[in-house]
Every structure is written in structure tokens, then in C-alpha cells.
Amino acid sequence: MFGSTVKIKIDRDLFDRIRKVADVAGYATTEEFVVHVLEKEMLHFEDAGSD
Which of 5, 15, 35, 38 has a CA that sits 20 to 30 A from residue 25's CA? Predict the structure, then answer.
């Protein structure tokens, strides 16, 4: 379903670090940064699975 979301729990200390990095990196939101990092990391595993 397009546009549906889920929630995940992240340790508060880790989230605070993510928020700081996302801000320094110029992302509009912490969520945007997290999604970008996860999508980028997923490519490594998806590409490895096709070998």
C-alpha cells in the first residue's frame, strides 16, 4: 500500500545522535535521513543476493 508507514522503537540516545547527524548533513527531517540510510544499506544486501 503506497504511503503506509510503520513505527519502530529506537533507543533515545541513538535517536539523539541520529537527529544531530541528520541536522549536520542537511536533511529536512530525521525520518528522511533514516530512510535514506536504510535504503542505501539495503542495496548492499539486495545486490549480494543477486550474485
Answer: 5
CA distance 44 to 9: 23
Phi, psi of 47 (to 5 degrees): -70, -40
How many residues are there in the chain? 51
Q: How far apart are alpha carbons 18 and 49 in whole angstroms? A: 28
Give the other-Cβ count within 10 Å of 36's Cβ.
13
Higher local confidence (pLDDT), 1 or 6: 6
Domain boundaries, the chain: 12-49
Residue 24: all three cell numbers together: 549536520
